[in-house]
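Project standup — Tuesday

K.O.: blocked on the structure for the chain from last sprint. Re-posting the sequence here as requested.
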Amino acid sequence: MFGNRDCLTDYDPRESRNKIRVFIWLVSCAFLLLVVRLGYLQVFRGDELRQRSEDNRIRVQEVKPLRGLIVDTHGNILVDNQPSFDISIIPEIAKDVEAVKNKLTNLCDWVEGVLSFKKVSQPSGRPFVPVRVGRNIGRNKLAAVETHSLDLPGVIVDVVPVREYLYGDMMAHILGYVGEISLSELGGGVYAGYRADDMVGKYGIEKFLDGYLKGKSGGEQVEVDAAGRRLNILGRIVSVSGYNVVLNIDSDLQKICWDAFQAEAGTVVVMDPRTGAVMAMVSRPSFDPNLFNRGISGENWKGLTTNPLCPLQNRAISGQYPPGSTYKLIVAAAALEEGLITENTEISCDGTYQMGNRVFRCWKKGGHGAVDLHRAIVESCDVYFYHLGEMLGVDKLAEYATKFGFGSKTGISLPGERDGLVPTKEWKLRRFREPWQKGETTSLSIGQGFTLVTPLQLLRAYCAVANGGTLYKPRLVKRIETADGQTVGDFTPEAEGMIPISKKNIDILKHALWGAVNEPHGTGWALKREEKDVCGKTGTSQVIRLPDDEEDQKSEIRYRFRDHALFVCFAPCEDPVVAVMVIVEHGGHGGSASAPIARRIVDGYFNLEQERRMR
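H.V.: unblocked you, prediction finished:
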């Protein structure tokens, strides 16, 4: 007992108090550190963490608008919208992006390169913002992704609209295509206000009227779980569809032109000479615009861009050709209006024309004999127009050609139109530092030499003769309207001036064009119809000049060196309602290559109109 008392007597309470103080001090320090940490997180990182928390629960999702429809003059849909499925990844939820990448690429035997993870692997400072890695995956792959969604954290599927071009390559050069906005386009000029990943028009009507077609994006505030799956929609801003575009194009007539033109390369344009409305436009070779909607493959793009026939070029507005004998109408108009000749003025053609030490030949070796203006146009006598060219001179020819609309864009609602070329003495001196030669005027007088026109320019000039002298701006767009049919913009006929030709001289020219088709020796005899209602002119556009002794061996010349074949016409002669321009590249003679195509188109147009009246 005494021992026990000694133990109790030896106990010192101060030792216990010291231990308690140490414990309290440690707890206080820990608590202080916790308070400091909480204060730091609350004060200095509170906004960031609050946003991260919200982003983990609430996701703001852009809702892409539907692009406006494009329809033909009768309301037939040419371009529609179809649903497409895109894959996106939320990096913060996915965590291990490499693992998700492997799962996606192995899923459904997807090969490497189908998906793009480059943007995911680059830190953006917005880890909860979805990054698209695959576009238009298809319904089968969509089902596979949805089935394995639990194994693919952070992977979401969005439904987005894509364009569907219902007529494929038949209308590709008119309608164009869309593609993802490029870095060079983003934020500049007409693309101010656009965002990355927006789809914009890249070609054709899609590009020219992109501002009307694109619509306005909406958005959804979506509540999601930890895996990124949608739970609820908390708010919505409805997207606004783009305006619809109504064209003057007649899809039935377009098909007639497409089927009629089976040549390897060239173009067809059909216009209403009374208003300038473009009713059909074909350019061959063509391409399928649907290839671009889902992201064109490198192989397909290379095939289009390396093709020597340039399928991406719209030859109707950007092809530049010597007009050949179709230009003789302008030369004749100038000579008549300047009083240098009358319709009865005769010139003798023996098949040759001497200019200095050079001999220019007529296409008819034996010559045409004594010909007046009417017969010179009907039979396309070269020698007759050599003389007219010498009388007029290059600058007077240029003056009239310019007033017929050559040498400048027509202003049609399509990007990529070319100016053509109307040469003058001053132009040659500036361009080549050489004076103009008289022999060059001789070549110009039959549509060869430096002169270049686009098919649309040439057709517009003939339309002005057809309608009595009014030069109309070609109109591809008829109107722009809202989804419910309210008109936003109406494109009415727009006269840009009058050609400087009197009614009397226009009648002389029209009668000669009628003879070129309907008289026995007319170069456009292939277009003669039972109704005898077509006026037209053939043309042969020389690609390279051949020595005289090789002129008879043109069939043996390689394709790319053969002449272009042209034909332009309108009908009926008294009150024209349709005008057609046909160019067959390297086709040879206009009368044999282009006129039969024009014949099928003119017949098809009137048959189509008759069928519609009978419905």
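K.O.: great, moving the ticket to review. Residues 1-5, 549-554 have pLDDT under 50 and may be disordered. The radius of gyration is 37 Å.
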